[in-house]
Design goal:
The chain has 278 residues and is α+β, with helices and mostly antiparallel strands. The protein has helices at 92-104, 126-142, 147-157, 161-166, 200-214, and strands at 2-8, 29-47, 53-73, 77-80, 109-115, 169-173, 178-181, 186-192. The strands form 2 sheets. Strands 2, 3, 4, 5, 6 and 7 form a 6-stranded mixed sheet that branches. The chain is globular.
Length: 278
């Protein structure tokens, strides 16, 4: 399978919630594009006490995307065109929606319809992208959370979800949530897949097994490659910075800062256990 997609390599520019222009019911949210990502590089620099791996990675949004539509319903539910994606409470988009509803005190509920174009289990951030699109769409509708609150909520859903909210290109550290914008030009990318479905958690468990078998240290110092430390103004859900990701066009910058960094769910980014995903 070959996926030919234009790659925009530029500064993080905020969640570009792209509404697809179609005839639709006025109470329906979307459809929206949920863009995937690639990792230009990924270094494991350590392991947290809770088992999550610390990373130093460069992530980039790509044009390959899913299509998300939120349809008013009596209760929250999800459907997906790809039968490999979960349709139950473990679906990352549904997890994100319910988390937002709880945080915002929403009484409304929606059915989340996902038209899947990002391959499942390909490391392209499909589940995280769907979750980010749902969070951004709901906050565009209800404007209940500040940017930092939305980023913190995104991190509680999955380690890659904050980046999928922000988009662009960034060097990401921590478990992937501390984002420092990167700049560059515009490129074309060919992604070739073999059809295998790999869970993030399984990949990290296999890595840990290799490290244990070889008796080597899991940590890697990026300085060995000449990499500098991320700048102090890197964006994180747990810190207030001068350079914040713009979540959507209706939100305003806020100085509110969560008291701590939430623990991300499994199945997205650095993970010690079985995935949720979509």
């Amino acid at each position: 399978m070959l996926l030919f997609d234009r790659l925009r390599h530029g500064m993080m520019s905020g969640m570009q919630l792209t509404r697809i222009q179609r005839n639709m019911a006025s109470d329906q949210l979307g459809p929206y594009h949920a863009y995937g990502k690639i990792n230009w590089s990924l270094l494991i620099t350590g392991v947290r006490e809770d088992g999550y791996h610390l990373l130093d990675t460069v992530m980039q949004r790509i044009d390959l995307c899913d299509e998300i539509t939120l349809i008013p319903a009596d209760s929250w539910s999800v459907s997906c065109s790809d039968r490999r994606a979960p349709r139950d409470a473990s679906n990352t988009a549904l997890v994100a929606a319910r988390a937002y509803a709880a945080a915002a005190g929403l009484r409304d509920a929606y059915h989340i319809a996902i038209e899947k174009r990002i391959p499942v289990g390909a490391g392209l951030g499909g589940g995280s992208a769907d979750a980010a699109a749902v969070l951004s769409a709901l906050n565009e509708k209800y404007a209940a959370l500040t940017e930092q609150e939305l980023l913190a909520l995104a991190l509680s859903v999955g380690a890659d979800v904050p980046f999928c909210l922000a988009g662009g290109c960034a060097r990401c550290t921590g478990v992937g949530e501390v984002m420092a914008p990167a700049r560059g030009g515009e490129y074309h990318l060919v992604v070739a897949g073999c059809g295998a479905n790999l869970s993030t958690a399984a990949v990290f468990r296999h890595y840990d097994g290799l490290v244990a078998a070889e008796g080597t240290d899991v940590r890697f110092d990026p300085a060995l490659l000449g990499w500098r430390s991320p700048p102090r103004n890197a964006t994180s859900p747990s810190t207030s910075t001068t350079r914040r990701a713009k979540m959507n066009r209706r939100q305003k910058s806020s100085p509110n800062t969560p008291s701590g960094t939430p623990t991300p769910r499994s199945g997205s980014g650095s993970s010690p256990s079985a995935p949720a995903g979509s």
